[in-house]
Amino acid sequence: MYQWNILKSSNIDEAELPAFRDPVHWLNYLPPLGKQDIAYMGCGVDWRRSFITTDHNPYYDAFVR
After folding, report:
1. Are the beta carbons of 20 and 26 closer than 8 angstroms?
2. Cα(14)–Cα(43) distance, rounded to whole angstroms?
3. Cα gap 44→38, rounded to integer Å
4. Considering the entire predicted model, what is its pTM?
């Protein structure tokens, strides 16, 4: 339940917490929040060059390895 408590303390709606059992949900949920935070800090980022380096994106995962 430790991870559950961390997610809960991050102001994520409790009804949405079970969806985090799926690893792909993390990939869809968290990157937009990170982009918001970076924009909030005033950083300019060319997001066209961003990519996910996990098994979910085999081309770039192999590139990083």
Report:
1. yes
2. 31
3. 8
4. 0.67
pLDDT of residue 65: 67
**DSSP symbols for the chain:** -HHHHHHHHTT--GGGGGGGGSHHHHHHHHHHHHHHHHHHTT----GGG----STTSHHHHHHH-
Residues of the chain with pLDDT under 50: none
Taking the C-alpha atoms of residue 39 and residue 24, their distance in angstroms, rounded to an integer, is 24
Structure tokens at 14: 């409790």
Alpha carbon 28 to its chain centroid, in Å, reads 6
Q: Which residues contact 63 (CB under 8 A, 6 or more apart)?
A: 53
Report pLDDT for 62. Answer: 64
Q: Which two tokens stand for residue 35?
A: 């982009």
